[in-house]
Amino acid sequence: xxxxxxxxxxxxxxxxxxxxxxxxxxxxxxxxxxxxxxxxxxxxxxxxxxxxxxxxxxxxxxxxxxxxxxxxxxxxxxxxxxxxxxxxxxxxxxxxxxxxxxxxxxxxxxxxxxxxxxxxxxxxxxxxxxxxxxxxxxxxxxxxxxxxxxxxxxxxxxxxxxxxxxxxxxxxxxxxxxxxxxxxxxxxxxxxxxxxxxxxxxxxxxx
Length: 207
Prior knowledge:
Number of helices: 1
Mean pLDDT: 80
Structural class: alpha+beta
Distance between the termini: 113 Å
Helix content: 10-25%
Oligomer: single chain
Order of helices and strands: HEEEEEEEEEEE
Radius of gyration: 32 Å
Largest sheet: 9 strands, mixed
Number of strands: 11
């Protein structure tokens, strides 16, 4: 008996199902590949921006580094004053997160000079009146804020100049080379290397 039913239609339907399945799989695969590409691009862009921020210092020295000797009978500096500002285009920076390290050729070392307490920031507390004996006793603070806008805060903002005072140990004597390293929370460090002159006065620029 002749079969009146044809299987051609079923074969066409199966082919259509397979085609649709291939199209769906291809679409999903393309979406995954594109998503991975976008993610990689964004990650690379973020890495570049972070690298630029870390590689470039956000601080710069304004003017001379001044050495102060509160006791001219001694042959050492009591502290230094250095004026810092933001580099062009720099964003506001919280200096309470800055790490200051110190070293000199006389053997003085301090990897993390402590910042004076908030109540002493205005006049730098005892740094201006008391000599530091050892590097472990060192402290730093903000002696003056120039061009400050608005109420006092810990943010160094564009167009502001802050005078930072760093107390020095007894090893910071004449003819010694000192290095004070300013490491902001974001950005490259700003090293300050100077040589203490052979003769000291109450106030002098050091180079």
